[in-house]
Amino acid sequence: MGFSEMHGPLVELEFWNMDALFMAQDHPSREIHEAFKVRGKGAVGDLELIKRVRQAHESGLDGSIGWRYEWDPEVALQMVMRSQTTAVSARHLAKGIKAPARHFCIGRVFRPDEIDWKHFIEFNQCEGIVVDDSMTFRELLGYLKSFASEVFHARETKFIPHYYPFTEPSVDLAVKV
């Protein structure tokens, strides 16, 4: 389907795991119960990117008003076990992607959770990025349906409208194998 694979570190900076994704530093999901903390600090290296992320949080960019709090670069440099593969996508997007492009990541993520028959502290997550000025939502659904059929040999697929604050419009994909 024309996708190339992305890879990223398992131990990640809060900057890539949360800040670059516009998750406020005082957001409840950043509490200790939502990510495994790792001792030590890292570095981003791109001072212009840090400046833009800080501005996005404090006062906004491109019409946004931001979160309106004082963003702390020391928090952003703290290490965590990657809690979502979107950190890999954020790193990849920060390098610059020219349209048309198709990328995916299948990677291990870690989240503190109550362990039961359907929850564990470690699991694999899959995501993709399609950068194309002519792309439509209907085409995205086609990609997802093809992925479910070709990778998981799904007999049935169903799209369920869902709200995610970081994407619009959003859907969940349910498959029967």
How would you describe what is shown here?
The protein is of the alpha+beta class and 177 residues long. The two termini are 21 Å apart. Helix content is 26%, strand content 26%. The chain has a 3-stranded mixed β-sheet, covered by helices on one side. Strands 2-4-3 form a 3-stranded antiparallel β-sheet. It has 5 helices and 8 strands. It is globular.
List keywords for this structure.
single chain; 177 residues; alpha+beta; 3-stranded antiparallel β-sheet; 8 strands; 26% strand; globular
Task: Give helix and strand order, one letter per element, not per position.
Answer: EEHEHHEHEEHEE
Radius of gyration: 17 Å
Give the strand content.
25-35%
The helix tally amounts to 5
Give, in spatial order, the strands making up the sheet with the most strands.
1-5-6
Helix content: 25-40%
Unreliable parts: none
Distance between the termini: 21 Å
Number of strands: 8
The geometry reads as globular
The main β sheet shows up as: 3 strands, mixed
Mean pLDDT: 92
